[in-house]
Design a protein that fits this description.
Elements: E1 3-4, E2 10-11, E3 14-19, H1 24-39, E4 43-49, E5 63-67, H2 84-94, H3 96-109, E6 114-121, H4 127-133, E7 138-142, H5 146-154, E8 176-177, E9 180-184, H6 185-191, H7 195-210, E10 214-217, H8 225-234, E11 239-241, H9 264-268, E12 275-279, H10 288-301, E13 305-308, H11 327-331, E14 335-338, H12 343-348, E15 352-357, H13 361-370, E16 374-376, H14 383-393, E17 397-399, H15 406-417, H16 419-440, H17 445-458
Parallel strand pairs: 3-4, 3-6, 4-5, 6-7, 7-10, 10-11, 12-13, 12-15, 13-14, 15-16, 16-17
Antiparallel strand pairs: 1-2, 8-9
Helix pairs in contact: 2-7, 5-8, 6-14, 10-15, 15-16
The chain binds uridine-5'-diphosphate-xylopyranose.
Uridine-5'-diphosphate-xylopyranose binds at residues 23-26, 28, 143-144, 255, 259, 279, 281-284, 308, 340-341, 343-344, 360-363, 366, 381-383.
C-alpha cells in the first residue's frame, strides 16, 4: 500500500533491511543504495558490525542496529599478514548468530509495517541461509563490476595449472587466460596469493548470489553491455544495473576517515587538467621501496600532484617517514600530500588531469564519471581485472605493467597527460562520462533499472 508523504515522497510502508560489509569500498555503495531507496519511499534499517561501524548521526532518516562481531579475534592480524580469504571466511562465520538474532527480532517487531527484503553485500554469503530460514527474500549488492564476477566464475582457482604462481620469467606471463581472454596470466597472478582460499570464498559467494532473489550492481549498462548480456547464462536471477550510485547525490558522506578539505585553495590555483591525483584506496598496501619509486616518479615528472597517503599504507611506516630525503623541499608548492582526500570532488575539479589509482571499483567508476583518464596500479582481488578493462577494453588509461618503477611511472604519466594517445584516452572517457549522465537521466538505462528494482521490491 502506498501513501503520499508530506514532502512529495511516495511512502511505501515497506521497510528494507541492509547489511554492508564493513570496509570503505563496500560501505559507501551500500549507504548510497540505502539513500536511493529511501528517496523512493522505503524505510531503511541498517544492520552493521561493530567493526568500522557507520556514524548514525550522519543518517537520521535510517535506523541502525549494531550486531556483535568477533573481529577482535583476528584484527591483530591486520594490516601486515592479512589473508583476505581467511578474513572474509571468518567474517561469514562470526556474524551468523548475531545477524540471525537481529534480523529475527526486527521481523518480529515489525508489526503492521512489512519488511520487504534484506539486501546484503554479496561477500556475506552466509546471509542467504539465514534469510531462507526466516522466509525473507535476500537481494545482494555486488560492489564490483560485472566483468569481475564473470571472471571469478570461470577462473580455475583450484586447478593445478599454476596460473596463480607464474613469475615474470615464465613465457605464459603475458598470454591471455583461456577461460577469460580479456585477462592476461599476469593479472590473474595478482588477484590472490592463496588460490585455494580464493576458490573457496568465490564459490561460496557466487553460489549464494545465484540462490538470491536478485543482484544489484553498481555499474551501468553502457559500460558493460557484453558482460550484462552474458550474465543470465550463469546467474539466472534478476539483475539491476542502476549505477553509478554516487551520482545520485551531490557528494558522498559515508567516508570512514576525515577528508582533508584544505587542498581546494591549492587546487584552485593549478592550471586546467594539470594535476596528477594519486590514491591507492582504503585497503591497499605498498612496500617502502615501491613508495619511494612513486615519490621519485612524481618528483621527476615535473607536474603538480596531489597524493593521498593513508596512514599505515606503507608497510612498516606510520605515514611519511619513508619518503626520499628532501622530497618535500624539492617538490615544494608543486605537490600536496594529504592523509585522505575528498576524492569525488578532487576528481570533479577542473585542475585534475589524471588519476593514478589502485582501481578499486568505486575509484574506477568515480574517475569515469568525471572523465578523468587513469594510470593503473592494481593491488589485488578485483583491481587487476578493473585495471585490464581500463587499459585494454575501454582504453581510458595506462596500466603500469611492470609495477612501481620510476622510469615507467614517468612514461605512463606522459602518455596520459600529453600527446595524441593521451587526448584519445581523454576523448573516450569523456564519451563514457556522457553515457553515465544519459543512463541516469529520465528514460536512461540506470533510471529504468532503478524503477524496475523499486517495482520488484514493492512486489514482495
Ligand atoms: C575495496 C577493494 O580494494 C576494491 O577492489 C573493491 O572494488 C571495493 O573494496 P577500496 O580500496 O576501498 O576498495 O577502493 P575503492 O573501491 O576505490 O573505494 C575507495 C573509496 O574511498 C572511494 O569511494 C573513494 O572516493 C574514497 N576515497 C579514497 C576518499 O574519499 N579519499 C581518499 O583519499 C581515497
Amino acid at each position: 500500500m502506498e501513501t503520499n508523504g508530506s514532502h512529495g515522497i511516495t511512502v511505501r510502508c515497506k521497510r528494507i533491511i541492509l547489511f554492508p560489509l564493513p570496509f570503505q569500498g563496500h560501505i559507501s555503495p551500500m549507504i548510497q543504495l540505502a539513500n536511493i531507496l529511501h528517496t523512493h519511499g522505503f524505510k531503511i534499517t541498517i544492520i552493521h558490525t561493530e567493526y568500522n561501524s557507520p556514524n548514525p548521526s550522519n543518517y537520521p532518516h535510517f535506523i541502525f542496529k549494531s550486531i556483535k562481531d568477533r573481529f577482535s579475534e583476528i584484527t591483530d592480524k591486520l594490516p601486515g599478514n592479512l589473508d583476505t580469504n581467511y578474513f572474509l571466511k571468518h567474517l561469514n562465520e562470526s556474524c551468523v548468530d548475531s545477524f540471525r538474532d537481529c534480523l529475527a527480532a526486527l521481523l518480529a517487531e515489525s508489526g503492521e509495517e512489512r519488511v520487504a527484503c534484506v539486501i546484503t553485500d554479496a561477500v556475506f554469503y552466509f546471509a542467504q541461509a539465514v534469510a531462507d530460514d526466516l522466509k525473507l527474500p535476500r537481494i545482494v549488492l555486488r560492489t564490483s563490476s560485472i566483468g569481475c564476477v564473470l571472471a571469478y566464475n570461470v577462473l580455475p582457482f583450484y586447478s593445478k595449472k599454476a596460473y596463480f604462481n607464474l613469475t615474470k620469467q615464465d613465457s605464459d606471463y603475458e598470454e591471455p587466460v583461456p577461460e577469460y581472454p580479456t585477462l592476461k596470466f599476469k593479472d590473474v597472478v595478482k588477484i590472490t596469493n592463496n588460490p585455494q582460499g580464493m576458490g573457496d570464498f568465490t564459490s561460496n559467494m557466487l553460489s549464494q548470489m545465484k540462490a538470491s532473489s536478485g543482484i544489484i550492481w553498481n555499474t551501468f549498462k553502457e559500460l558493460e553491455e557484453c558482460e550484462l548480456e552474458t550474465l543470465p547464462q550463469d546467474f539466472p536471477v534478476p539483475s539491476f544495473t542502476l549505477g553509478p550510485f554516487h551520482k545520485y547525490f551531490s557528494a558522498s558522506t559515508s567516508s570512514l576517515i576525515v577528508q582533508d578539505r584544505t587542498i581546494f585553495s591549492w587546487l584552485d590555483k593549478q592550471p586546467s587538467k594539470s594535476v596528477v591525483y594519486v590514491s591507492f584506496g582504503s585497503v591497499a598496501y605498498i612496500t617502502e621501496s615501491e613508495f619511494q619509486e612513486v615519490a621519485h616518479g612524481l618528483d621527476n615528472m615535473g607536474l603538480p600532484f596531489l597524493w593521498a597517503i593513508r596512514p599505515g599504507m606503507v608497510v612498516g611506516s606510520e605515514w611519511l617517514e619513508s619518503l626520499p630525503e628532501k622530497f618535500l623541499e624539492r617538490v615544494g608548492e608543486r605537490g600536496r600530500i594529504v592523509k585522505w582526500s575528498p576524492q569525488q570532488e578532487v576528481l570533479a575539479h577542473p585542475a585534475t588531469g589524471c588519476f593514478w589509482t589502485h582501481n578499486g571499483w568505486n575509484s574506477t567508476l568515480e574517475s569515469i564519471c568525471e572523465g578523468v583518464p587513469m594510470i593503473c596500479s592494481p593491488w589485488f582481488v578485483d583491481q587487476p581485472i578493473n585495471a585490464r578493462y581500463v587499459s585494454d577494453v575501454w582504453k581510458i588509461g595506462v596500466l603500469l605493467e611492470d609495477g612501481f618503477k620510476r622510469v615507467g611511472i614517468e612514461k605512463a604519466i606522459k602518455r596520459v597527460m600529453t600527446g595524441k594517445e593521451g587526448q584519445e584516452m581523454r576523448d573516450r572517457i569523456t564519451c563514457l562520462k556522457e553515457k553515465v549522465n544519459l543512463s541516469l537521466a529520465e528514460g536512461g538505462s540506470s533510471f529504468r533499472s532503478l524503477n524496475n528494482l523499486v517495482d520488484y521490491i514493492s512486489s514482495f
